[in-house]
Specification:
The protein contains 13 helices and 19 strands. It is an alpha+beta fold. Among the domains are: 158 residues, Heat Shock Protein 90 (2-Layer Sandwich); 124 residues, Ribosomal Protein S5, domain 2, CATH 3.30.230. Helices cover 36% and strands 23% of the residues. Helix 1 crosses helix 4 and helix 2 runs parallel beside helix 6. The protein has an eight-stranded mixed beta sheet. It has a five-stranded mixed beta sheet with strand order 9-10-15-12-13, sandwiched between helices. Adenosine-5'-diphosphate binds next to helix 2 and helix 4. Magnesium ion binds next to helix 2.
Length: 411
Amino acid sequence: MHQLDAVSISRLSSEQVIIDVASAIKELVENAIDSNAKSVTVQLSKGGLDKIVVTDDGSGMDQMSLELCAQRHTTSKIESYDDISSTLTYGFRGEALASLASLCKTFEIASKPHNASCGYSVSYNDKGQPIRTQKVAASVGTKVICTGLFHNAPVRKEIHKKNKGAMAKIMKIMYEYAIVHPAMTFKLLKNDSNDANFVKQPLADHLDVLANIYGPNVADTLEEVTHSADVPYTWSINALIPSYGTDINLCSCSSDQRIFLYVNKRPVTLSGIKQIVVNAWRHSSMNSSRYPIIFLNLTVPPNSYDINLSADKKKIEIEHQDQICESLKTIFGDFYKSIPKSKPDAVSETVQISSQTVIDEQGSEESTVVSETEDQLEKKNPKEKSNESVFKEKKRKKEISDATQNKKKKD
Ligand SMILES: Nc1ncnc2c1ncn2[C@@H]1O[C@H](COP(=O)(O)OP(=O)(O)O)[C@@H](O)[C@H]1O
Ligand SMILES: [Mg+2]
């Protein structure tokens, strides 16, 4: 019996945090959002195995933080374990940069904080220690450059190369953060070129982002459900789910790829809650196999859940979850029981699900998704333009009706 050496310990835990290119991107995008960035750009070369570059315009780091940040268990987000119960940042374990340093051939970060006259670029060794620091003319924010991910883990590299769903997983991660942060700009650029895989400019709300990703005719099938309560503690939900009776081909698909669940804006696996909404929709649509599009953000006090259960922090245990689930069963059951105020316009089954995204039966999305400006839409075929106009018109009408209802409530 012997204790493992430090390098082996570090490699073993790194490979748990960064299991593939998608998880590397997830960690870097989360760091950008935690730094209050307004914009995050991810650039990939050879699917990310050759190079991943993530650039943000957030708070940046000074030279000292930059030289420390890639060492294991180094974080600016909590002071001690007890702070986990009050933190709302995505990160807090101080593991991601250290893991990337140990799994990449080269690892470099350039950063400049708001008030600094110049930025610094630091290269790290596989232990996350700085090996070279240079002054650079950087813009405010941070740029992380990883090359040769898994160069020292050939089996994992091979698995990633063969994994047909790798790009779909990366897209899903970009969508997850883009949908829950409508005001931010997100870009995923592929293969060193400026070919946009996914570009989302700042938008007004979650529904607009879903329209941007899946097309306005898909977003048009969704309706907002909100609820708040004070028992067992103060909690609320904000959801977008298919309206009663909408075209099944538009509002659902054969996999759960279009289900987006969050707790306090953190993408999580909430299988119990997911099943409640899926069952309610399936019951109303008399379909037992398809999955509806769902966006659902559950807001709960930060001390009412434990997120430190899995390396990717997607597994979550919520206090009194059974009680919340009972309420949700009633809310979504009632939503689909109520007679629709206006049954949505009948939409032809042949209408394209989205001009931008194609889902195959295995649920992997092969996408070329580009955010479109009004000008670009003008140039598209009249049907798509009219769908966009219908979506905007319906949204405008809904806003007017909500405002009228709020006014009535106040009166
Ligand atoms: N994009 C970024 N902008 C500003 N600071 C960053 C960025 N990425 C990482 N950092 C800093 O480096 C620290 C370590 O990052 P990381 O290893 O991901 O751990 P964690 O996010 O859990 O704190 C962060 O706590 C933060 O202070
Ligand atoms: Mg982090």
